[in-house]
Amino acid sequence: MTLANLPPLVTVFGGSGFVGRHVVRALARRGYRIRVAVRRPDLAGFLQPLGNVGQISFVQANLRFRKSVDRAVEGSDHVVNCVGILFEAGRNTFDAVQEFGARAIAEAARTAGATLTHVSAIGADANSESVYARTKGRAEQAILSTVPSAVILRPSIVFGPEDGFFNKFADMSRFFPALPLVGGGMTKFQPVYVADVAEAVANAVDGKLQPGAVYELGGPEVMTFRDCLETMLSVVDRKRPLVSLPFGLASLMGSVASLVPFITPPITPDQVKLLKSDNVVSPEAIAAGRTLAGMGIQPTAVEAVLPSYLVRYRPQGQYTRSGRAA
């Protein structure tokens, strides 16, 4: 194969993360050459078996350092940004990672003449009181002003084997006598399977999605926070009371927990702010066909996947007899 006939090169920022590793798998199946841009390439080797020999390579990049971003993007045909954080830690702030970093990737893609796909989040709003949502919104603005043809994908809460939502509460159910329902558990989500999100990204790289458009990705069902926890408890075969926790108290607890060094807080004040708004696909996105169904992807239901990876949280793991909740 000559250089002229090589498959397109796609650089995936955050390719070793929860969403990123599934994006790499989806792109590898399509035959793309993939360059995974991560802070620690030495910890990303587990991705290599997802492709053929030489198909997946690695490069060190830190979104806080612009030169490393430019180097990672150089020679790329398409760039995918999967980087995002749920809470701040040290120098990895929302501003640095989600806003400055996204802008740096967009500028590097423009310089390289590469197309761009950005994974954002439902609720992204440059005027939000939540720093997470605000930096997501500002990142979208920066990207579209820099690369007007970029495709923005906004998933609802993403679930899958390595998720930080169902896994977190399933783990808590093993040790806590009760589980908290922040704000009474009435916040609505539309959980979307990580493999479906990855397919949406791959469609964008394939050029099948409208340039410059924003797509919202949700699963086949809308679930309240309470629904999610009740479904999870049923899957792990445990009985735990769900205790309503007012927003103010949850925010206070998050503030106190954030002061404890070297421990990831179960919830932060900023996440409490996010829970004050529903996280579902908008009527506008549905009407415009800018959803999973609109791009020809059949969304996967939560209950079809949860048992495959939450079984380890059952009282006796895979050997637990259903109906004998602990």
Question: What keyword list fits this structure?
Answer:
326 residues; alpha/beta; Rossmann fold; two-stranded parallel ribbon; 38% helix; 15% strand
Structural write-up:
By secondary structure, the protein is of the alpha/beta class. The chain has a domain at 3-163 and 190-220 and 280-300: 3-Layer(aba) Sandwich (Rossmann fold), CATH 3.40.50. The chain is 38% helix and 15% strand. It has helices at 18-29, 66-73, 94-112, 131-146, 166-175, 194-206, 225-236, 247-258, 269-274, 283-288, 302-310; strands at 9-13, 33-38, 56-60, 78-81, 115-119, 151-155, 158-159, 179-182, 188-189, 192-193, 214-217, 223-224, 242-245. Strands 3-2-1-4-5-6-11 form a seven-stranded parallel β-sheet, with helices on both faces. A two-stranded parallel ribbon has the order 7-10. Helix 3 links the parallel strand 4 (78-81) and strand 5 (115-119).
CATH class term of the domain at 3-163 and 190-220 and 280-300: Alpha Beta
| Uncertain parts | none
Write the CATH fold name of the domain at 3-163 and 190-220 and 280-300. Answer: Rossmann fold
Structural classification: alpha/beta
Q: Radius of gyration, Cα only, in angstroms?
A: 20 Å
- Averaged pLDDT: 93
Order of helices and strands: EHEEHEHEHEEHEEEHEEHEHHHH
Q: Would you identify the CATH architecture of the domain at 3-163 and 190-220 and 280-300?
A: 3-Layer(aba) Sandwich
Distance between the termini: 59 Å
Instruction: Provide the CATH superfamily of the domain at 3-163 and 190-220 and 280-300.
Output: NAD(P)-binding Rossmann-like Domain
Percent range of helical residues: 25-40%
Shape: globular
Biggest sheet, open or closed, and with what strands and sense? 7 strands, parallel
- What is the overall number of helices? 11
Would you count the extended β strands for me? 13
* DSSP strand content: 15-25%
Please give the order of strands in the largest beta sheet.
3-2-1-4-5-6-11
